[in-house]
Amino acid sequence: MPSILVVEDDASLRHGLERALTQAKYETVSVADAGEARAALATHDFAGVVLDLSLPDQDGLALLKGIRREGYTVPVVILTARDALDARVDGLDAGADDYVLKPFALQELLARLRAAMRRGAGQASGRLTHGDLELNTEAWQAWFKGRPLDLSRRQFALLAELLRHEGRVLTYDHLEASVYGWNSDIESNAIQVHVHSLRRKLPADLIKTVRGVGYMVPA
């Protein structure tokens, strides 16, 4: 039976979602804040997440960005009252699979959750591959030609982000945010240093430089 994580601080809505998901034949784990959500993700294998953005200990978008940086590929449906276009775009850019506005119909939420899980089924294993290179984003392990790669956490996060967007140029700002977070104070050449280190461990032409813009892994 698929298991769903509900992250919602409003107790009445959280319990209502639990009942609806249970009636729809899902196992449900429900939590009230971002800290509990992280703990649940670390100990359970979820098929989907319903995430409220207004959490008491951390903004839901920050939580979402964080778990995506950490390699969690579980489908996430955002549940929020923020109906401005910019808010919806920010949510999707942060890694959400869909966006449901409050107030909402339970039938619509369940339908969107099912669709998000169907789309994400191909990523359920947490595996990213490119030729002879393979990453397991859940176990933070990497191999090249079957041999384990010794990568730092930052190097792994950078390489995983490039592979997720294979064939697309990612800007320096995008990569910095992915690896370090949006508010980190980092050296201006930090991404370049990590790319240099990765090139010493992988074929030098795997990561292409787009001068003045960023990097890419060609499709």
UniProtKB/TrEMBL annotation:
Pfam families: Response_reg, Trans_reg_C. The modification 4-aspartylphosphate is found at D52. It comes from the Bacteria. Residues 3-117 form the Response regulatory domain. Keywords: DNA-binding, Phosphoprotein, Transcription, Transcription regulation. Residues 125-219 form the OmpR/PhoB-type domain. InterPro entries: CheY-like_superfamily (IPR011006), OmpR/PhoB-type_DNA-bd (IPR001867), Sig_transdc_resp-reg_receiver (IPR001789), WalR-like (IPR039420), WH-like_DNA-bd_sf (IPR036388). Residues 125-219 bind DNA. Coiled coil: none annotated. This is Response regulator. It comes from Spectribacter hydrogenoxidans.
